[in-house]
Design goal:
The chain is mainly alpha-helical and 86 residues long. Helix content is 69%, strand content 5%. The longest helix is centred in the last third of the chain and has 18 residues.
Length: 86
């Protein structure tokens, strides 16, 4: 996935299993393990979490996704593309 694609994906409020598989670069079983881990932690903190998704903010924290870096990369790629098209 490119930086722009990752940013578009993490802009969602909720993360479903297929989104988690893409973000973490893992298969279904590992994604289910990650999702369960996030859900269990949130439920211990007395949050309600639906069965089919977890908050994207928590996924970003869990995977330690560096948003400022992705934004910088996306902007650099956009700028280089603009220079090439001139």
């Amino acid at each position: 996935m490119t930086a722009s694609e990752t940013l578009r994906l993490i802009a969602k409020q909720w993360c479903n299993l297929s989104d988690l598989m893409k973000l973490a670069g893992v298969g279904r079983n590992k994604a289910l393990t990650i999702k369960s881990s996030i859900k269990e932690r949130l439920e211990k903190e007395n949050y309600y979490v639906p069965n089919n998704a977890v908050p994207m903010q928590e996924v970003v924290k869990y995977l330690n996704i560096d948003i400022p870096y992705l934004e910088a990369r996306a902007n650099n790629l956009k700028e280089s593309y603009n220079y090439e098209s001139i």
